[in-house]
Design brief:
It is a single chain. The protein is of the alpha+beta class and about 575 residues long. The protein has 14 helices and 19 strands. α1 runs antiparallel to α4. It is rod-shaped. Bound molecules: adenosine-5'-diphosphate. Adenosine-5'-diphosphate (ADP) binds next to α11 and α14.
């Protein structure tokens, strides 16, 4: 374009030539100027409304591709910003060029749409051009026409490529994030760069569809954007309307406000923009489905290009992508909050149980002491004695439950960590089996124990591991009908020590297996319910195994038997 303009000045005999292109906002922007430095300085980048040109063209003489408007016909009110008035006096000739004469070639595409102009001024010979000169100028006009169309097309294409790239980057980063802060932090750069914006801010609405104090505003440089309550309200309303209409809103001086913004609101926004040194903004509603979830504002300072159609379309697409990401983040945050609430509830439940158990323990110890005293008195009748025995059995059972509750609370308390040392699991199993011999014999159970020669050291707390073995073995004995078998194995596998307790007892259904190990859970199987129990034993086992960094594996077939396996880290000593 510059070369064409220079051709006009150097070969077609004009002092100044300027090529302009029509922009999307309805303004002509001067793209190339040839001539004096003063002319270039004054004209380059100048923007004037297209209709100024078209109204002048109506009065023009038709010179092929060129249009000539003699100064007598020019609009005297056109003002300073229109054209260029060189400071020269016309020569004394009937064809003299007047400083206010206008010679311009409007540049149309094949469909007749106006895309630019080639304007020239200051003929070197001081005369309005004759036929020969017009023919040359016509050639330059045709060249300019092609150049402007190609340049605009290329700009549009580059714009689309840039926007597609920005959109891709945003979709990739934003949708991978589950926190709102991260979504904004990660898409900020792509947004500002992709849209060639000076800054951005983002406001999200809460579930009632409001932002402001409850919503959050992010600016591109990390600083907080202070919006007055009035502006927040305008933004909220505009976002909802814009989302409904699936439109973005451009706020810029000299630009008509969209339907999402009243003239009064637009003026307020413009005043605010002036205050913060911003010239224009692209306002995009964010949402998912019918719900508007916030808005994204991209800003440009003075001198930056106008927001293009491609940018508006991409921004709206991004409004959908960010909207979905915000919705996901919101759901995730809600779930996170729920999990936290449940954890708090669980902690509270644990504390409540521990406190109740504590409070019951002392009076129960006193009850048992008195029962013992009474039971030892010599002059008791048979009925009294059997009542006392029943009370004693009941009290002992209560003590066991209370002790289990206290142990459950202790082994689940992160503030009461276990102190690990090498513990011989084979030895523990020996001790546990000794204690179980009597009840096992009563049920004529066959108990087989397979231990390697020598100790098998696990890393852990002796009493707690003793409790694990005791609970599993006593359950196997309890839930295996008479004459069944129970097999206990201690083994070393790689870096682990494994305790296996397998029985051929009543088994556990697959549904019950899923809940096994939660406090107070007992199988629904009537054969299991018929046995005395609290449903605390396996919960204790699970917690102890967990805090040892081990794992509990249970396999069971209802009516056929169960295998419990505890994997624990081995100790070398
Ligand atoms: P409790 O035996 O006191 O009820 P546990 O926590 O030790 O409590 O066990 C929970 C439930 O798991 C038991 O009520 C029982 O239904 C089932 N269970 C545990 N061990 C076995 C087993 N070896 N065979 C069949 N069912 C078992």
């Amino acid at each position: 374009m510059q070369l064409i303009a220079e051709g006009v000045t150097q070969l077609a005999g004009f002092g100044v030539a300027a090529i302009s292109a029509v922009r999307e906002d309805g303004k002509m922007e001067v793209m190339a100027v040839a001539g004096s430095d003063a002319a270039r300085l004054e004209l380059q980048g100048r923007r004037t409304p297209v209709d100024r040109l078209t109204s002048e063209l109506a009065k023009a003489d038709d010179w092929g591709l060129l249009r000539f408007v003699p100064h007598e016909r020019l609009d005297p009110d056109a003002g300073e910003d229109w054209g260029w008035v060189p400071d020269v006096a016309p020569i004394d000739d009937e064809n003299a060029w007047h400083p206010l004469d206008m010679l311009v070639a409007p540049l149309y595409d094949d469909d007749g749409a106006l895309h630019g102009s080639l304007a020239m001024d200051l003929p070197i010979d001081g005369r309005r051009p004759g036929q020969a000169q017009r023919a040359v100028l016509n050639q330059y006009a045709e060249q300019s026409r092609r150049a402007v169309l190609v340049a605009l097309e290329r700009e549009k294409l580059a714009d689309r490529v840039r926007m597609a790239d920005a959109a891709r980057r945003i979709v990739r980063t934003a949708t991978a994030q589950l926190s709102l802060d991260r979504i904004v932090a990660d898409s900020r750069e792509a947004l500002v760069e992709g849209f060639r914006a000076a800054g951005m801010w983002l406001q999200t609405f809460d579930r009632d569809g409001h932002g402001g104090a409850r919503g959050e505003l992010y600016s591109s440089d990390g600083s907080h954007v202070h919006l007055t309550p009035e502006l927040i309200e305008i933004a909220e309303g505009a976002a909802h309307r814009a989302w409904e209409q699936q439109q973005v809103v451009v706020v810029a001086p000299d630009r008509a406000f969209s339907a999402a913004l009243s003239a009064e609101q637009g003026a307020l926004v413009l005043a605010f923009l002036r205050e913060i040194g911003v010239e224009s903004l692209l306002f995009t509603p964010l949402g998912a489905g019918p719900e508007c979830l916030g808005n994204l504002v991209l800003t440009r300072t003075a001198g930056a290009p106008e927001w293009t159609e491609a940018e508006a379309t991409t921004a709206l697409d991004i409004g959908h992508d960010l909207g979905r990401a915000i919705l996901n983040a919101r759901i995730f945050e809600r779930e996170h909050q729920l999990v936290e609430e449940l954890q708090q509830l669980d902690t509270y439940k644990g504390q409540l149980l521990a406190t109740v158990a504590h409070e019951l323990k002392n009076p129960l110890t006193s009850v048992m002491g008195h029962l013992e005293m009474l039971e030892s008195s010599p002059d008791l009748t048979g009925t009294t004695r059997s009542s006392l025995n029943a009370m004693d059995r009941g009290a002992r059972r209560m003590v066991r439950v209370i002790e289990d509750l206290l142990l459950l609370s202790k082994v689940g308390d992160p503030d009461d960590p276990m102190i690990a040392a090498p513990v011989d699991l084979a030895r523990i199993v020996d001790d546990v089996v000794d204690l179980i011999t009597v009840p096992a014999e009563q049920k004529q159970l066959e108990i087989t124990v397979e231990l390697p020669a020598g100790p098998v050291f696990a890393l852990g707390d002796h009493d707690e591991l003793d409790r694990v073995a005791a609970n599993l073995v006593s359950n196997a004995v309890k839930y295996t009908p008479a004459s069944g078998t129970v097999r206990i194995v201690v083994d070393r596998t790689g870096d682990d020590v494994v305790l296996t307790v397998a029985d051929e007892g009543i088994g556990i259904s697959q549904d019950d297996l899923l809940r096994l190990g939660t406090e107070f859970f007992r199988s629904s199987n009537p054969e299991a319910v018929a046995q005395p129990g609290t449903g605390l034993g396996l919960a204790i086992v699970r917690r102890i195994v967990d805090r040892h960094g081990g794992r509990l594996e249970i396999q069971s077939d209802l009516g056929r038997g169960s295998t419990f396996q505890v994997w624990l880290p081995a100790a070398s000593a």
